[in-house]
Amino acid sequence: MPTGSRVRGSGFRVRTGLAVGLMLALALSAATEPAGAQPPRVIALAPHLAELAFAAGAGDALVGTVAWSDYPAEAAELPLIGDAFRLDLERVLGLDPDLALAWEGGTPAAAAERLEELGIEVAWIRIGRLEEIGSALVEIGRRLGRPDRGQQAAKDYRSALAERPEPAEADLPTFYQVSERPLYTLGGRHILTEVLRRCGARNIFADLDVEASAVDYEAVLARQPAVIVAGTEPGGDDPLQRWRRDRDHLPDDLSLIAVEPDTLIRPTPRIIDGIDLLCRLLP
């Protein structure tokens, strides 16, 4: 009997040790669980960043965004914290975010530094080319706790982009008008330059090493565009009225096209729709 008692006691100690080990393992697993299991509270510092968060399946992590964040509809319902260049820090603090999505090349460095001083992590998102929209979807999905959905969104986008390759030649001289007064256009750094190339067109101000710039009316004419594309808002004034008024002094074959700008110039998956529309409208 004593020997059997010792055997049973040993088994009990083994089972107890295994149970304790399992509990410790579970505790360590919980302590080291990826932050993605509980999405951070996030603010988007540009309209396209809010749209990308929703496209990556992580819109529910957003607690605030900036003016003109109007797509999808859920983005327009989020609290506003300012615009792409000026933030209301009191509103930001009231939302208690722990992560801010910043626009590399657009968000002022001083604004990002102030957020970091307040203990808010800043994630810079760079999109300079169409292919980088896919990378942004992956990164945002990862940072906001939806890695699988971000990767799937990127895969879908890249597949759609691959179906729309650049033609061998892109030589249709095209002027893109952001605004009439002052007369603003987009330069070589802006993704629109690549969008135009997908449709066989050439940005006549692609040599400007900037995202956007004011230009002179005479400078536009000197570059002899065959097409003028102007962004327009529903219910707004005709953005091409000056060109139409001066039609007698312009080439007879100059094409004037007005388009809704968001799908053309916002670096999000919807830019595929913008490419398709522009390619249909260009002569």
Automatic annotation (TrEMBL):
Keywords: Signal. It holds the Pfam family Peripla_BP_2. It comes from the Bacteria. This is ABC transporter substrate-binding protein. Residues 41-283 form the Fe/B12 periplasmic-binding domain. One of its GO terms (biological process) is cellular response to iron ion. Residues 1-37 form the signal peptide. It comes from Wenzhouxiangella limi.
